[in-house]
Each structure stands twice: as C-alpha cells, then as structure tokens.
Amino acid sequence: MMHFRIEQWRAWAPGLESAEDWCLWSKAPVILSDSREQADVSFLPAMQRRRLSPLARMAFQVAWPLADSYGQLPMVFVSRHGETSRTLSIISDLAHDEALSPTQFSLSVHNAVIGLWSIMRGDTSEMTALAGEGDGLEHGVLEACTLLGEGAPAVLLVVTEELPPAFYTPYINDVPFSYAVALLLTPGDDWHLQLQAAAGPAAEWPHALNLVRALCNQQPLLQHHWKSRQWTWSRKA
Known about the structure:
CATH topology: Peroxisomal Thiolase, Chain A, domain 1
Distance between the termini: 18 Å
Order of helices and strands: EHHHEHHHEHEEHEE
Number of strands: 7
CATH class: Alpha Beta
Number of helices: 8
Number of domains: 1
Shape: globular
CATH architecture: 3-Layer(aba) Sandwich
Helix content: 25-40%
Radius of gyration: 18 Å
C-alpha cells in the first residue's frame, strides 16, 4: 500500500482551466467538443513556446505553477500514447520518401517533454517518462511514491493525452478529448493507494479524469479497474 498527500492539483482541457471549471464539469461530465484549442503557455518566451507541441503545452500549463514554489523538483511524466501527431507526421514523411526533420524526431520521443522541462526550468532533478496502459496514472503514483520514499520532499506527477489525429481513431478509443492533470505529491497519510488482483468494470472516463472528479466531489473512495488489476484509492476523513 502506498501513502501520500496531494498537496495541490491542476488540470486542463479545452474550455476547462480552473478548478471551478473542472468541478462544474465533474457534476455532469460530457465529452468536450474538438476545438483544437491549445493550452496557454504565455509565461514562456516565444522561442521556447515554439518548441512545444500541443501535448507539451498542456503538460507545461498544468505543471509550471505547481513547481514555482520549489527550486529542484523530481517529475514523473505519464502518457499512454505520447506524441501521436508528431509521430504520424514522421511516418507520413517516411511513406512519401521525404527527408526526416531531426528536430521533429527528437521532439517525438517519449521523454522529450521532461527533457524540455529540465532545460527550460534549469532543473536537473530525477525525472521519469512512463508509457503505461489504462492505469498509467497509478503506475505514475507508484514511481512518485518511490521517490518520496527515497527522501524527495515533493514530486510532480503529470498525466496527459492528446486527442489523436483521425487516422488513429480505429486504434485509440480511450482519449475522449485532450487533457492534462498535474498532482503535487508530498509525504503524508492523507491518501492510500492499494493494488489487488481483481477484475471489474472498465471505467467510463480515463483514470486521471476520474481522480479529478473524486477530488472535486470530496469522494473518500475510488476504485479503478484495468484488466486483472484493481486499484483502490482511499482518503482519510
């Protein structure tokens, strides 16, 4: 069993930026329209903004304010599908025998976001990029709790997915809309997360969005099932 405290959280999706926005959505969750709206990262210089994909912009938008009160802060970045738009662009270039862009390739790899984060913040803390399945959030918490157990005063956990291009629609059905969720985790006993071998119903929404709903609604218990794994989140009253 893992123990931790969620010190702060932030989330972003098209049209949902503040905690108030998310808590209103949580009362009657719906699939958001595909507006292709991008996260606001105007706090960065223009030269740095231009290097960020929509996926990276979402991650920076939710994570940057949480990290500002810390100098050096370990980070765990989680995305099941990663840079689908950039990857499709590279594959298309290959299919048409066109020269590949070294920059596009370097920014399409799964740890590109934490690399850019480290450079732009001047942060050399330990950072991990995970490509989990439907329960990538929980695997991210496991990694973060390991870092807390090793003495880190706080760990930043970011989960983000980009609505994939239409080409991927037959293959990716677990991203209802683009979203990013950031959690600032610290040592504590407020939350418990336990893993058991048990099958159960699939969640209607991605695990990170269900956690946001639980946080908004002060929900004391939350269960997530993925394949033969049952994750139980419980909060002290």
